Here is the input.
Amino acid sequence: MRDVAVVGVGMTKFGEIWDKSLRDLYVEAALGAIENSGVDHIDSMIVGCMSGGLFVGQEHLGSMLADYLGIKNLPASRVESACASGGLAFRHALIEVASGMSDIVMASGVEKMNDISGDGATYALATAADQEYEVFHGATFPGLYALMAVAHIEKYGTTRDMLAAVAVKNHDNGALNPNAQYPFKITMDTVKSSVMIADPLRILDCSPITDGAAAVILTTVDIAKKLGKPYVKITGSGHATDTIALHSRDDMTTIASATVAADKAFKMAGKTIKDVDFAEVHDCFTIAEIMVMESLGLYAPGKAGEAVLKGETALDGKFPINTSGGLKSKGHPVGATGVAQIVEIYKQLTGQAENGRQLKSNPKVGLAQNMGGSGGSSLVHILEVA
Amino acid sequence: MYSARDWREYPRRYRLEAGKCKKCGKILFPARLICPKCGAREFETEMLPDTGKVLTFTVIRTAPSQFTDIAPYAIAIAELTNGVKLTAQLVDCDVNTVKVGMEVRIEFRRVQTDAYSGILSYGYKFVPKWY
Ligand SMILES: [Zn+2]
Here is the structure.
């Protein structure tokens, strides 16, 4: 396998972007990444998108997006793993470059979620769960994470304040991210008094419905050196699935797919969680961030919530998590999220994070964890300074 | 939705039919073509027991359109007496009284109506065991 680097990144503003279509958002992010990297062409592109079909009635995204990017006859693929589609696109771009099949590949993701009603979006997102044995009975996505939250609270005594602290911390970070959908701070009281969606999860425990796109350019370390732009090395990649239905799992208080994907990524990188300096994790709901912290081995089961309350994962904490604002504040255009996580890791490792959210600790190793559904799939990537 | 998608589920939703692996004895709901525990492919049909206890639950306050008329409603994952776990609504009680560990029984109820085809879909729901 060849050593692979990320040489450039691009992303749109995340939010309710009424004046831009899926194709506009995608091309804006893609051109941004290509220009940022200094490459004069790409050999192929992989697009992560959960549901162009349900959100905007458009499939065949490889063809359409390469067309609107102005590149004829490009090998362009679309991959899907629900909310982990972006992470999956990144992994497939990595495999393609590492294998020698292509030298320069764009990993990208896009989702346009506001062109349908809230009910339509709820339906589209719920297709990531078991349609006949969960969704049929009236389970929603917040509902599935609420089932995990109640189980976690019952087993470990996780508190309302611990959940709220995740949202407050991520908004503190997102307030410093010019691309965030909700770039403002919130208080513990605001979270705890916001409208209940699925007990115990309130609206401010949930990531929003978001339009947006993100893209990154992958190439060999040898080519990256010649380009003369800042680059980071991709040293670990792990991917694992789990049962589609939450009720089929032995333990509903942990994300086993994240644990297995992380183990694979650490083994590939020759590292452990102790070697990692910071992470972007999939905080689709506040409870998810707590469970993923434990599933990655960063904290013992039941201990992550207390750590968030103490500020250990804040921007100035000993292990910063979601410096970008996470899905909660930055926004969660599902297919783009996994790629946007890589954008943030790249910026932090190359000293380019905006508005004072650059980590002062001179980080060397970053981790991105992206998951689909209620944890039915996870991708973990480890990136390091060159 | 075409009616086939509904009636194909009748064995599970109407009769609680599970598949018991002839080799290792694992009970699968729904039945499958291959056992995830031992890889065997022969099963016998076994009916699920109708009682169990709540492992976790939530109350859905913001519901999909087919369920807005009954919201707020409780959704629970229960473990039945044979170890099978499944997700369903927990009804016939105040949603504020639902607890982990609560004993439940399975009843046959109308679950939802498809807005486009008008198909009435029936299936299982949990009710408190004492009820
Ligand atoms: Zn078996």
User: Anything to note?
Assistant: The radius of gyration of chain A is 19 Å. The interface with chain B takes residues 119, 122-123, 126, 132-140, 142-143, 146-151, 154, 195-201, 245-248, 252 of chain A (CB under 8 Å). The pocket of zinc ion is lined by residues B 21, 23-24, 26, 35, 37-38, 40 (CB under 6 Å).
